[in-house]
Amino acid sequence: MEEFVNYILQFGNLNSQQIELILSKAETLELRKEEYFSEAGKVPRYVGFLLKGVTRFCYYNNKSEEITHSFVEENNFVSDQQKFEMQMVASEYIQAITDCQLLVFSKKNWDEIGNTIVGWKEMENLIVKNCLLKAIERRSPLVSEDATSRYLSFLNQFPGLVNRVPLSHVASYLGITQQSLSRIRKNIR
Question: pLDDT, tens digit, for every residue of 74-125?
Fold first, then answer.
């Protein structure tokens, strides 16, 4: 809980009563490895803050290939925010790659926080903006770099993650085959 409070306080000031209110609206959710936090074809139920574990955002392309387009580690928000806010059907999956523990907020509770705490919507906007900028920052180099550079950038951006997630997900994220990733890993050792 402390990590969550420290995280949100980066984006604005809250007094102890406001923090208590926010925490009172949260529930703890445990996800086992490979379970879904949110699924394509369903309306996202929660906004979550990852206390433990790693999740990934993925979808299926027109060839029915599974594509991983981002990872979220501990002490970060995880949600399909736009679809959650609008209560629309999601087009991608959010899956636990490891066993995960999350602090989650239902739509009703999330809205109650926003309607009760003056300035929460501005904080929420800054949090969402921060998450988007991080995602763009991590994806941008993947467009112009060669496969080895993309892998080295991945190692730099997600230190330790390569030992926690299946290499097939890493390869998919990098836009290369698992065989190419094995070759690259072998060549840089």
Answer: 999 999 988 999 999 999 999 999 999 999 999 999 999 999 999 999 999 9
pTM across the whole model: 0.89
| Helix-then-strand count for the chain, H and E | 8, 8
Residue 156 CA to residue 151 CA, distance in Å, equals: 9
How many residues belong to the chain?
A: 189
Q: Please name which of 4, 8, 9, 48 lies closest in space to residue 28, comparing C-alpha atoms.
A: 48
Q: Token pair of 165, please?
A: 């997630």
Contact 81, 17 (CB under 8 A): no
Judging by beta carbons within 10 Å of its beta carbon (0-12, 13-18, 19+), is residue 82 exposed, middle or buried? exposed
- Map tokens 């904080």 to a residue: 123
Give me the torsion for CA of 164, 166, 169, 170, rounded to 10°. 60
CB 59 within 8 A of CB 65: no
* Distance from C-alpha of 82 to C-alpha of 5, rounded to nearest angstrom: 23
Q: How far is CA 31 from CA 36, 57, 58, 150, in A?
A: 8, 15, 17, 30
